[in-house]
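Tokens as discussed.
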């Protein structure tokens, strides 16, 4: 039976746009999916299933979808038989403990004997166990942040990003419990056909090159001929940059791919070494 590889994505939520953008950068065209449960790509043997994020780990475990994109927080919480194939670098957030403003914790030990409301009981219990803390965990499926003001819990453990929701409920970030980002998962035990495996490997290679490109930038600058050695020494990854002649015989143009996070650390040094007309460009795709 020849079928397409099935990828589960969040239907509507914080991960949807970024997941579709990743596929687009991989050169995979997806038509407008609004109101549809499944969409098949026109130029890649991939069928997309749009689901609630909470259901994705189980559907992947059971083979309803071959792979899925979902937050690591959900994957770990659901304790399904799935493995992470790739960290995707978007949808970053933290599962954190938060206390009422006037009841800040000085250390983790103060959690002993407290009641904590959360939608992440497994992640929280794991954290408490690792830190030898005995606390009572109450599972709530939503609106966890109102639990302390209702007198249901002393503190909460939930996803926090800006902290605005916390502030509105007079809560304050306390300890970090879990770092999360979107991940690509597959079932631990289910086998797929050789053809589907080939498609999966092709997709993974494309995702890898998009990720690599995100971590890199294309640097262009003009330098005095006499500074070439100095410039190369400033950037370790500049072992063999492209060097071009300019109309001005005393100048050279230097082009190189550098790690994105390096640029701001070295810009002053580059300028001191005489670099001018510095341009930093994004790279869309980088073949490994
Ligand atoms: P669904 O209707 O699919 O169940 P949801 O309301 O459970 O959606 P979203 O709020 O869309 O989920 O969040 C999906 C995932 O996005 C989270 O599980 C988490 O991994 C990630 N995420 C990133 N930043 C945040 C944030 N600031 N708040 C909540 N989730 C975030
Ligand atoms: Zn959800």
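Sequence:
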């Amino acid at each position: 039976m020849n079928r397409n590889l099935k990828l589960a994505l969040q239907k509507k939520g914080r991960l949807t746009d970024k997941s579709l953008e990743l596929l687009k950068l991989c050169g995979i065209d997806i038509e407008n999916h609004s109101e549809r449960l499944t969409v098949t790509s026109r130029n890649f043997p991939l069928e997309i299933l749009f689901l609630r994020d909470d259901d994705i780990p189980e559907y992947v475990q059971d083979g309803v979808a071959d792979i899925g994109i979902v937050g690591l927080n959900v994957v770990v919480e659901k304790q399904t038989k799935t493995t992470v194939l790739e960290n995707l670098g978007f949808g970053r957030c933290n599962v954190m403990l938060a206390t009422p403003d006037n009841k800040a914790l000085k250390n983790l030990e103060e959690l002993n004997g407290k009641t904590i409301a959360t939608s992440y009981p497994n992640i929280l219990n794991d954290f408490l166990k690792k830190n030898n803390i005995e606390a009572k965990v109450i599972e709530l499926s939503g609106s966890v942040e109102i639990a302390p003001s209702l007198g249901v819990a002393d503190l909460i453990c939930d996803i926090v990003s800006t902290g605005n929701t916390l502030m509105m409920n007079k809560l304050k970030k306390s300890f970090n419990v879990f770092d999360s980002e979107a991940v690509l998962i597959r079932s631990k035990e289910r086998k797929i056909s050789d053809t589907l495996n080939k498609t999966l490997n092709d997709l993974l290679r494309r995702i890898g090159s998009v990720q690599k490109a995100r971590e890199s930038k294309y640097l262009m600058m003009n330098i005095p001929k006499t500074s070439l050695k100095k410039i190369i020494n400033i950037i370790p990854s500049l072992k063999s940059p492209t060097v071009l002649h300019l109309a001005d015989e005393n100048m050279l143009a230097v082009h190189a791919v550098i790690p994105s996070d390096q640029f701001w650390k070295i810009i002053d040094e580059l300028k001191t070494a005489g670099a001018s007309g510095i341009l930093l460009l994004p790279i869309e795709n980088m073949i490994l």
